[in-house]
Amino acid sequence: SGYLKTKRFNPLDLVTDNKGLIGFNVSYLFEQDDMVKENMAGLAELADSGKIYPFETTFIPFEKMADAHRLIESGTSRGKIVLTV
Question: What is the pLDDT of residues 34-85, one digit of tens each?
Fold first, then answer.
């Protein structure tokens, strides 16, 4: 069973380490095409109107990897941080 091989962790360590864990089980939606289309259309409308938007991606040259790591550690970054080659 895969469950027995699942890594165990202490949830309190997540708080101490400033980490989070989230998961979604959307498999029950596979048979709900109409509902999924309706909700995706609603999300697209919100995105098109600018009411919701993704966080910006920060691109940092590979040579400045230490700067990227400092940014991550600072806790001030939002969105993705991508090292460019």
Answer: 998 999 999 999 999 999 988 889 999 999 999 999 999 998 888 899 999 9
* Strands, E assignment, the chain: 58-61, 81-84
82 has which bridge partners?
59
Beta-carbon contacts of 68 under 8 Å, excluding residues fewer than 6 positions away, are 60, 81, 83
In tens, the pLDDT along 24-37 reads 888 888 889 899 89
C-alpha to C-alpha distance for 57 and 50, rounded to whole angstroms: 17
CA distance 57 to 9: 30
Helix-strand-coil split of the chain, %, nearest 5 = 55, 10, 40
C-alpha span between 59 and 66 (Å, rounded): 13
Give the whole-angstrom CA distance, residue 80 versus residue 59: 8
